[in-house]
Amino acid sequence: MENGKAYGIFYCDASKEAIEQELPTIRDLVQTPSQLELTLVEGMDNVRGNANLVTLAKQAQEQGMRYALEATYPGATNEVTANELSGILNQAYQSPLYKDGEPFSGAVVYEENGEYVFKE
After folding, report:
1. What DSSP line would sit under the chain, residue for residue?
2. Among 100, 105, 110, 116, which residue's Cβ finds the most Cβ atoms within 10 Å?
3. What is the largest CA-CA distance in the chain?
4. Structural domain of residue 79, as residue ranges?
5. Cα–Cα distance, 28 to 14 (Å, whole number)
6. How many angstroms separate the CA atoms of 35 and 103, rounded?
7. Which is it for the CA torsion 68, 60, 5, 25, positive or negative?
C-alpha cells in the first residue's frame, strides 16, 4: 500500500515556530498515530506537488491562507490521512495559537481519482 497524503491549508496569526512548538501537544490530544508525518509549510508559494495542488495553493493564497500542513501516513489511504489531519486542525483551533472567538479559516484537501477534493 502507498502512503496516504493530505494537505491542511489554513490561516493562523502565529509564527511557524509557535505552530511547530504546539503540534506535539495537539497530536497528543487528538491521539494521532505516530506514523503520521507532518510538514508545516509557510507561504503558499512554497507548496510543491502536482499542478492541481499548486493551483489550489495559489487560490488559497488569494484568500489569505498562510500555511499548509502536509500529512503523510504510510499504509493509509488519502481519505484516512485527511481525517487525521482534520482532527489536528480542529484541535489547533482550540489551542493557544488562536484567540478566543477568532474565526477559523482553512480546509483539508486530498487526492481522489486524480482530483483534489475538499474534506467535508
Report:
1. --EEEEEEEE--SS-HHHHHHHHHHHHHHHT--TT-EEEEEESGGG--SSHHHHHHHHHHHHTT--EEEEEEEETS-HHHHHHHHHHHHHHHHTSTTS-TTPPP-EEEEEEETTEEEE--
2. 110
3. 41
4. 3-118
5. 20
6. 30
7. positive
- CATH number for the domain including 66? 3.30.70
Residue position matching grid coordinates 479559516: 105
User: In what side-by-side order are the strands of the sheet with 3-10?
Assistant: 37-42, 67-74, 3-10, 106-112, 115-118
Q: What is the pTM of this model?
A: 0.93
Q: With beta carbons less than 8 A apart as the criterion, state whether 10 and 88 touch.
A: no
Residues in a beta bridge with 9: 68, 107
pLDDT mean over 88-113: 95
44 burial class (0-12, 13-18, 19+ CB within 10 angstroms)?
buried
Cβ–Cβ under 8 Å, residues 36 and 84 = yes
pLDDT in tens, 63-78: 999 999 999 999 999 9
Here the cell at position 91 is 484541535
Structurally, how many domains does the chain consist of? 1
